[in-house]
Amino acid sequence: MGSAVFLGRNPSRATDDQAGELLPLADDTKSVSETHAFVETNHDDLWVTDLDSTNGVYVAYPDGTGAQAEPGVAAAVPAGSDIVATFSAAWTSRSSREQTTSRR
Fold first, then answer.
1. Strand-strand pairing, 45-50 and 37-42
2. How many CB atoms lie within 10 A of CB 73?
3. Its pTM surpasses 0.90
């Protein structure tokens, strides 16, 4: 994963001036929106923004707590946390300096 990624069933960039890779996710149930979330690194930190998805984005922290991401607002993803787009898709923040990996 590069420094910025758009995630979804058929992702596109939100605006022409936003850079980022497009990472399509297989989702036969269509519970993931076409362009669901934007994940980016900022120095040593990982951030996720819900792009007004239908089912939302939840950040599950390693201690078992978590927070719903506010649509359009970047939410911090601490190391070891999961980014949950739906019940069927999640990504884990391995560390603040490592790449985010898919987990199913």
1. antiparallel
2. 10
3. no
Residue pLDDT, tens place only, 63-85: 999 999 999 999 999 999 999 88
User: For domain 4-99, which CATH number applies: 3.30.200.20, 2.60.200.20, 3.30.300.20, 2.30.30.210?
Assistant: 2.60.200.20
Which residues are CB-neighbours of 29 under 8 A, at least 6 positions away? 86, 88
pLDDT at 70: 94
Torsion of CA 25, 43, 76, 12, to 10 degrees: -30
The neighbour count for residue 42, using CB atoms within 10 Å, is: 11
Tell me phi and psi for residue 9, to 5 degrees. Answer: -65, -40
When pLDDT is cut at 50, 70 and 90, the band that residue 100 belongs to is very low
